[in-house]
Specification:
By secondary structure, the chain is mainly beta. It contains 1 helix and 6 strands; from the N terminus they run E-E-E-E-H-E-E. Strands 1-3-4-6-5 form a 5-stranded mixed β-barrel.
């Protein structure tokens, strides 16, 4: 069986950072993906789908330090649905992507980290914005 989600989209707002009781860092952010088509009248139509992304540990640290609202990212992970009871006793559900991989697709200089930081490759930076692309 396979449970895999692959998304490319833009962040709706800066990631939210929190910690589990044992000290593990967790980030949550929403990612927007767009679908475009022509309707039956031949006019352009568009729909935006929002995805809730969760990261843990080192990946959460990278996301918390480098991702900002509007940034274009590639996310790979598994789909998970969980439930809980709210303060009124109503059972709630959420479906999210638990990310195992993230790559930033925007060009350099659009993150929270200093521009002269040499940690782009460690942070999952993409060659898309690099000047030394071999082609």
């Amino acid at each position: 069986m396979v449970n895999k989600a692959i998304l490319i989209g833009r962040l709706g707002k800066d990631p939210e950072v929190r910690y589990t009781p044992d000290g593990t860092m967790v980030t949550n952010f929403n990612l927007a993906t767009d679908e475009q088509w022509k309707d039956k009248n031949g006019e352009k139509a568009q729909r935006t789908e929002w995805h809730r992304i969760v990261t843990f540990g080192k990946l959460a640290e990278i996301c918390g330090n480098y991702l900002v609202k509007g940034k274009l990212v590639f996310v790979e992970g598994r789909i998970q649905t969980r439930s809980w009871e709210d303060k009124d006793g109503v059972k709630r559900f959420t479906t999210e992507i638990v990310a195992s991989n993230m790559q930033m697709l925007d060009s350099k200089g659009q993150s929270k980290a200093p521009e002269n930081s040499s940690s782009d490759s460690a942070a999952g930076g993409s060659a898309a914005g690099s000047d030394d692309v071999p082609f």
